[in-house]
Write a structure and sequence with these properties.
44% of the residues lie in helices and 17% in strands. The protein is an alpha/beta fold and 330 residues long. The chain has 2 domains: 222 residues, Spore Coat Polysaccharide Biosynthesis Protein SpsA, Chain A, CATH 3.90.550.10; 89 residues. Strands 1, 2, 3, 4, 5, 6, 7, 8 and 9 form a 9-stranded mixed β-sheet that branches. Helix 6 packs across helix 12, helix 10 packs parallel to helix 13 and helix 12 packs antiparallel against helix 13. It starts with 12 loop residues before the first helix and ends in an 8-residue tail after the last helix.
């Protein structure tokens, strides 16, 4: 059972009755956590340990593991709520694998995570569940905090994409937020199973971006996407400029393959805002030597995204070289 925040203001009269009925319903929700893994290391044990100590109890943890020979079977002994399914490398797909896991879940809420996202505290699941309370909200995603070894520029990106204030984004926000309206991250995101199924589930095959494709469908069908800033995970990467190129190439490909979601909605505006904001921070902090690094990284991101959006016009050999997920093209 979840123990709700005592500082929360409780309505009086009939509104208070509705409040407590909602709480009772939410406390009875079954939550399954779904984690695709690939050659997991010690970080997975840390993740599982923290998941089993949450204030809102998890019913099952479904692991979709690629390449069984690298799986540590002792994890299943130490964490009895694990249910592990093994895949061959060629069977993995960003959308299809998560779709298969969702079909195995009988939870009312499904929380998708990656193996390197570590809960900041024991309230992660509770705060995601609370963010899903409103009837019109279909999904909620967590705030990603930088790891201790995270470089300064990536810290700026994390702060830009995952601010301190929570919000709910709907179709009414499209003119103001653009592509950011659809932003959602399966690094740590919760979905109402009923709404997920109503949307037809994750796409069967996608190079990347299955979370934003699903969020886009939800927004188009009248649902909101909640950003739960108080649901926090530690997760960051120190990507090189070339890795940023490859990642954004795949992002561009995913958007080009799903014009029903992304056509007519520009992503470039958010990128420009991020660069301006980061330059402002660098100047204020006196880290001027990082401005050329930012320019190179931003150029790599844009070049990758630009080419990815136009991948159909490129030779197949070049497409594969540009992509981070090379097995997608086999």
């Amino acid at each position: 059972m979840s123990e709700y925040k005592k500082s929360e203001t409780i309505p009086a009269g009939n509104a208070g009755v509705v409040f407590w009925k909602q709480r009772e319903i939410m406390e009875k929700m079954r939550v399954d956590v779904i984690i695709p893994t690939y050659h997991p290391g010690q970080e997975l044990r840390s993740l599982l340990t923290r998941l089993t100590r949450q204030s809102f109890g998890v019913s099952r943890i479904l692991i979709m593991n690629t390449e069984e020979e690298f799986w540590d079977k002792k994890l299943e002994e130490d964490f009895p709520i694990l249910e592990v399914h093994h895949l061959k490398r060629e069977e993995f797909d960003h959308g299809g694998t998560r779709r298969a896991a969702a079909a195995l879940s009988d939870g009312d809420i499904m929380v998708f995570m990656t193996q390197d996202a570590i809960p900041k505290d024991q309230n992660l699941i509770e705060n995601l569940v609370l963010a899903l309370e409103p009837e019109n909200v279909g999904a909620a995603y967590a705030r990603q905090l930088p790891a201790p070894d995270c470089r300064f520029l990536e810290r700026c990106t994390r702060a830009f994409n995952y601010p301190e204030e929570s919000c709910v984004k709907t179709s009414a926000d499209l003119p103001r937020l653009g592509i950011k309206t659809f932003f959602c991250s399966d690094t740590c995101a919760a979905y109402k199973k009923q709404v997920y199924e109503e949307m037809g589930g994750f796409v069967e095959k996608t190079i990347f971006n299955e979370d934003m494709i699903m969020a886009g469908r939800m927004v188009q069908n009248g649902y909101g996407i909640a950003y739960a800033a108080d649901a926090r995970v530690i997760h960051s990467h120190n990507y090189s400029a070339m890795m940023q190129f490859h990642r954004n190439f795949d992002l561009g490909v995913s958007q080009a393959e799903h014009p029903e979601i992304f056509q007519g909605i520009s992503s470039e505006g958010e990128g420009i805002k991020l660069v301006k904001k980061t330059i402002s921070i660098l100047c204020r902090k006196g880290r001027f030597w990082l401005i050329p690094v930012l320019v190179v990284q931003s150029g790599a991101k844009y070049a990758g995204y630009f080419l990815g959006k136009r991948y159909q016009k490129l030779p197949k050999a070049l497409v594969r070289r540009c992509s981070m997920n090379k097995s997608y093209w086999e």
